[in-house]
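Give me structure tokens for this 247-residue protein.
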Amino acid sequence: MKTPKAGSTTDLHSVLVQNLGLAMAEGTLAANSILRLDELETRYDVSRSVVREATRVLSSMGMLESRRRLGTVVQPDDCWNLYDPQVIRWRLASSKRLEQLRALNELRGAIEPQAARLAAARASWDAGSDLVSQAARLWAAGQRGDQEEFLRLDIEFHGAVLKASGNPMFSQLQNLVAEVLTGRTEHGLTPHLPHHEALQLHVDVASAIQRGEANAAHAAMSRIVEQSTEEMGTIWSRHQQGATAEP
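Here you go.
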């Protein structure tokens, strides 16, 4: 797992937060272990104020807790704010990334199909038409093999469905879904070219929403999430087999 390096003095705080967050996500800083602020100062060659600010940020994420007579204690991951985009990135950067992606996809499977169902009942014709256009652009990018553009459009599409649900709490999960889609791509857990079924399913979701077919929208979105989980498992297994085969 790579750790970032500071480029200047002004980077020291963010780099310390990043290094500690990655270490906790990986487990090299184990739950219930105690962080000694003076040791962090020496190890990272930073001031006490930088250390205090970094631990304050991590405490706000639920990753650290200050305890009287003990000091700063690393918290178990069920205390963390697992919806925080930065926490998601750290967990995806760890050796536990497949487990994290599966958990996130299970959450998507509970939310996105219902969002698609609600969008079919609530979205205006114009909003449905916009989704159809987005699905067409997504299809074109996938056919071209333009991974960067495909990722951007995929994030945009899923965010638009969440927004079209008319549920503001669903809509606020856009960033979480974006982190899942970005993490899959950055860590090589997507096929080089999207499968035809995946492209067609996005079109099916958009078309069903435009036509007001709630059950069809729900079914197509459910299949998108299921297929994503299947692809990740297959690609991960292939990577692991390749690593084992190396001399």
